Amino acid sequence: MADPINTKAPDDSGSVTLERYEYQVHVAVQGVLRMLSGEPVRHVTCEHIEDIVVASANGGSLAADLVWDFQQIKTKDAPEPWTLATVISKKPLRSLWRTYMAIRSSGIACQLTGGLEGHLDPGDASVMALSRGQGAEDESCLKRVASHLKADEGQVAAFLPLVRLIGLPNHSHLEDRNMRFLGGLNPQLSVTEVNALYLELLRRTRDAMQGKLGSDRIELLTSPDPDERVRRKRIDAARIADLQQRLCRPDHVLLGDVSAQLTGVETALVRKMRTGAASPDVIEDAQKMRAHADFHRMERQALGTWPANDAVANDVDQRLLFAARMTVRRHRVERPSPADAIYDALYSALTAEAATIDRHPLYAGDNVLLLGRAFALSDECHFDWGDVNEPSA
After folding, report:
1. In degrees rounded to 5, what are phi and psi of residue 220?
2. CATH number of 15-234
3. What is the dihedral of CA 228, 233, 234, 237, to 10 degrees?
4. β-strand pairing of 50-57 with 41-48
5. What angle do CA 277, 295, 266 make, to 5 degrees?
6. Under DSSP, is residue 69 helix (H, G, I), strand (E, B) or coil?
7. Domain range list for the chain
8. pLDDT of 174-196, one tens digit each?
9. Of 162, 122, 164, 124, the residue nearest 144 (C-alpha)
10. Quick one: how far is CA 209 from the chain centroid?
11. pTM of the full predicted structure?
12. How far apart are CA 291 and CA 294, in angstroms?
């Protein structure tokens, strides 16, 4: 029987489109890497007006002090260098012209960049003039670009000084260069950690290109307003703060305020603690610690440092359950609040036994994170918090 894989596909453009999309992702990551390195990049916006927009500080702190670099990215399979004829045929200038016409009256400081995979032809005077922002000074370049854009030469002469053409490495070299740059930000990181961080940068950049950065499953079912859609395409310092922390202090676990992740829905954990007459502050602490533990786990999974073998995480969960259920049996009928007593006793137990329970360690041997994971197990109905209506022994 003939195998259809040997039949030439009438249209294989999907693979090419995906390759070009991925190339654009790696180019956008460069702006984020500059942000991580301490350069004055304020944010990187994907797929809005242009493929990539990098906003950098221009010596001031106000929005008006930003320089906006609108980048149109083009790939090319052929190894030949870029000439002006090739640039015109690939149409990056046409896209940058549309951007220029849309923003020219806005008063913002901007640059219009054509990022071209490959290198520019040094023998083509016109393309080299464009690379230096001197396209308007090259008469042949000005006439050919004006003809290509079907625009008045006077207008094009005002447009070309803003244009820069730059050659970019091919896909494999671009990725290698980005990863070397990332590793240089903290030479103490292992190759595995650098790979994990870079993969996470790629994931967030892909989310930004799709307009879903920071969104969750529920939010994706709604239709946010246009401004919100743009915000979900923008990577700023807040979006990469955890990665910055990882670069600066890779072994340090910080307990920040992630209570915003909590919803107003009363979970099984809260109901069980109320049954045990838990005080409001204990319930609030339980919710926050559970959120911190979940965040820690998801972050490690995203960075690729969470064990692929489920048995490792299950081992910690089983040890937590042994400690929790033993504590519950001891304190479930205490008055007036068994839940508070269980909470205090479990905290003490996990403080004393953190290294034994978290042997690998998945939760940094941190008793607060371990208690948060215990709360998650309770939320999954693996143990309760006593019952004030249960008769005492």
Report:
1. -70, -15
2. 3.40.1350
3. 100
4. antiparallel
5. 30
6. strand
7. 15-234, 256-379
8. 999 999 999 888 888 888 888 88
9. 124
10. 11
11. 0.61
12. 5
